[in-house]
Specification:
single chain
Length: about 425
Amino acid sequence: MLKRVHTFSSNKVFLITIILFTLTYSVYYFFTLKIWEKREVFVSDQFLYYSYLPAYFIENDLTFNFIDNKIDNHYHYLWYATNDGKKYIKMTMGVAFCQAPFFLIAHYISPHFGYQSNGFTFPYQLAFCFSPIFYALVGLIFIFKILRKYYSVFIAGITTLLIYFATNIFACIFINPGLSHSYGFLFMAASLFLFIKWIAKPNYLNSIILGICLGMLILIRPTNGLILILLGSYLASNCKKLSKLFEFIKSNWKFIALIVLFCFLVFIPQMLYWKKISGSYLFYSYHDSNSVERFYFNIMNVFYGLFGFRRGLFIYTPVMILAVFGFFLMNKTEKELKWPILIFLLVFILITLSWWCWWYGGSFGARSFIEVYALMVIPLAAFIRYINSSTLKRIVFFSNFGLSMLFKYFSDKPI
């Protein structure tokens, strides 16, 4: 009993320490960088994700007809239109859902501090830039909880810190706060954590929460729906035999139906919006046949996306190389996730890096992989465990990590 209490306490203390450290450094960097003073923050794709909020809560018009009467037009990035001329937002509204609580706080306090309540003044900029920090930190909590299922407190803690400070998620949060990836990172981690929990104990509450998280993950970025490949593979791997898989599905069909239902419910606002602007509940927002924005399946793009100097994954986020080595070091306990993650990665890489803009501009490194880091923590932790098994390996690795953090601290200057 004392051992269980001690384990629980150490988990809690370690997790709180990690969150406090990352929050403190993030807030310090947030107010040091002050990106809202350096350049416009509501730009390009970031604005498109965000534009649902001022259009709905302030203008009360998601058709964007009000733009024509605007003297100070913040909506100059909204150039997409249907064949009959109706303006629309090509991005889905999942990011706007996540930003909404911060937007509403800014909307409430703006007049009290002498700012216009137009969705673009300083309080809105502050809320816009701070919201991804919150979601990324919540994502780290789920990351830590996933890792504790397979690894020690120390390994889980170090890996959690690495995934935040040693990848480009940090740059994305502070340089491109309006992009979808930090929000997707949270819901990717939450979906994996909840699914593992759901398989162990399928019930109504777990099913509802899992359905909502999966719905949000896909609504934030539709290609995130590829996680269903991982979840299906993991379920099959967990059941081991086909007969047991069918038996599991048969005995838990009500819970599976509940997951699908709540995932669908999350999508209803988006479908209603599509119906309003296109006349159909399902609408492909990249519908222009003359547009270059489509998939071009080319193996060389995959190579460049992983190893190229134009934001290649392993060039700009070399810690992912360690995660790849980690696949070979996974023990029996965590091997249940090895092949599901690998199968998912193969499909994800092929599809993601076949997009016309496979380098996904406007960022540091391969931002399209940020959500996937929530899965790559498993093999990365296996590599850290291997390093921690030897004193010499531990000294070399953590000395380099400490020096890297010092370099990062002294080189992080406002843009």
